[in-house]
User: Fold this.
Amino acid sequence: MYYKSTRNSEVNVTSAQAIAQGISEDGGLFVPSELPRLTLDEIKQMGDLSYADRALFVFSKFLTDFTGAEIKYCVDGAYNTKNFDTENIAELSHLFDGTYMLELWHGPTCAFKDMALQILPYLLTTSVKKIGTDKKVVILVATSGDTGKAALEGFKDVEGTSILVFYPEDGVSAMQKKQMTTQDGANVGVCAIKGNFDDAQNGVKAIFTDPATGKELADNGLMFSSANSINWGRLAPQIIYYVSTYAQLIKEQQIDVGEPINIVVPTGNFGNILAGYYAKKMGVPVNKLICASNANNVLTDFINTGVYDRNRAFHTTISPSMDILISSNLERLLYHLSGENDAQIREWFGALAKEGRYEVSDDVKKALSEEFCAGFCDDEQTKATIKEIYDKYSYTCDTHTAVAVKVYEDYKKATGDDTVTVIASTASPYKFSGSVLSAIGVEAGEDEFDKVDKLAEVSKLPIPASLAELKDKAVRFNETIDKADMKKFIFKTLGI
Assistant:
């Protein structure tokens, strides 16, 4: 299995090179040269395996330059009860008839990003050894809230690495900010920027692909890599939980072998739902992939019209991890849907960079409509959905998951589709306690941890230990910079 660049199909690298490098030198994203196929019998047999062993089987299809022992080392180190508070790693909760919550937030930072970022340090350090470099890896991360903490937690004190995280100063929840600014580890750095997530993401990409910056790093024995979902090592682990979920539904006799399911994903950067698309193309019977957005509904408009236009108001919402107007992983999908037309990808994404807009071809529009449906909801609808779920089912969900539930409800009303449906639940409600309490009509004090205590009282959910211990933890990182100064901050932190 080799990996190509979305902007140059002639690129041909191993998975180790793709993971270590993070992004292609031409600015494109690495994609597999072909998608491996899983038979229904193989998927069914996975029902009897642990999550780690399911991951081992799927990874063996993608990481063909890794030995079996190397992959086992990675999955066993990541997917265990030391890192996750459940043996199943990803829990399925039966919400109502034919609808399941796929709880992806049982890891150390209480967000779905843990599913990939607990294993990425193993994949990355193994990859660096395999490509034979002795450079120290500098991991750059732009975050809208959850990726930053999950990456910091995964890479803290990992030998041979440093990790630097940038987040929008007013674009994360109070709990997300507390998680990042109190982070332990001798090799970590965190900085707020004046701007939004797209500013942070564009800054990181520009630094990554600047040859002069790369040379300065190399001269100092360093190399860049990424823990954002532009890195294939972040995206591949997300495919696994969709394959695993289908196997689990068969095992629990909730579906018949071969019966299709819908997958609903609240998403801003498009990585999580793209993983569902890859799972489908590998053989998981998926009927529709339903893309759920908040008021920053650029993806909804794109899927419905084929026009991607980021020239619009940016909304700061109660689902901040989706406050994104430039969805990086869409580039991978369009590369596949365009027949791997790298020239077309360069044209579209060049137009996005220069004019903030592009329109795909009629063939791609048709392919989009066959695979995806899309919808969005605003903050008031999100809150109403949280309360509805709480009142009807005694189930407390976070603000992002509620967006997915609302969009799914709208989809079901519009289509009458009663296919068994899996909704990706992407974060613990405790990460957004204030918004969740407000939604269900419960008052709490201004202190974030008073809100956590009150939410525990009304939800009956145990407070995650990793969040409870933040209460008295000292802030280590409190710097805020202009987005133009990101490179200066990086070099200062690295001592260059």
About this structure: The two ends are 37 Å apart (CA to CA). Residues 232-251 form the longest helix (20 residues). Residues 266 and 292 are 5 Å apart (CA to CA). The chain has 22 helices and 16 strands.
